[in-house]
Amino acid sequence: MAEIRYGHREGPGKGREYTVAADQYFARRGGKFVFMDGTGVAKLCQTGYDYATPATTNAVYGWAESPKDTDGKSSYKSSSGDKMFVIYGTDDVYELPATAANVAASWIGRGAKIYTAGATYAMVQYAGLNTTLASCCLNIVDVDTTNDTVFVKIKPEVKQQGI
Questions:
Q1: What are the tens digits of pLDDT across the range 88-147?
Q2: Which residue, 41, 89, 116, 152, is most buried by CB atoms nearer than 10 A?
Q3: CB contact at 8 A, 90 and 130
Q4: pTM of the predicted model, to two decimals?
Q5: Residues pairing with 8 in the sheet
Q6: What does the domain layout of the chain look like in residue ranges?
């Protein structure tokens, strides 16, 4: 069985390179949503932030296309000065794992929040179903019930602006 390739699935893929903060762990088998800190440096979105609040430094900005994994690991660890291509359009669709063990077709049209589990090289970013669409930063546009993944778009009204 082939490994699922998470990431950008459809859309124009418009973006550019940005500097990434040091010590960010981008798991091969997880999401790569980032926000920009106050200095314009990309950081991986983590559990515990309200990424559904627009015009803040904690709003989702885009999806980072990370390089190959760090040798012997299942993720990539950024170093000071590293740059990554960040897709920032709101018309793009991304695939990432869901927090739930079983994904259902009824999830389509609902909202999702960003969650992380694990630490350092074992940390994975997930999409967690949320019943209140207004408090979410992602819209679920499709699901893969075989692999328990979701296809999401960044909600335009909560995307981080002004970068």
A1: 999 999 999 998 888 999 999 998 989 999 999 999 999 988 766 677 889 999 999 999
A2: 152
A3: no
A4: 0.90
A5: 94
A6: 7-158
> Residue 26 carries which side chain, given as an amino acid letter?
F
Q: Which pLDDT band, with edges at 50, 70 and 90, does 1 fall under?
A: very low
What b/e sequence results for 133-162 when a residue is b if at least 16 CB atoms lie within 10 Å of its CB, and e otherwise? Answer: eeebbbbbbbbeeeebbbbbbbbeebbbee
Average pLDDT, the chain: 87
Give the number of other CB atoms < 10 A from CB of residue 75: 20
Give me the CATH topology for the region 7-158: Virus Head Decoration Protein; Chain: A, (2.40.300)
Distance CA 65, CA 88 (A): 11
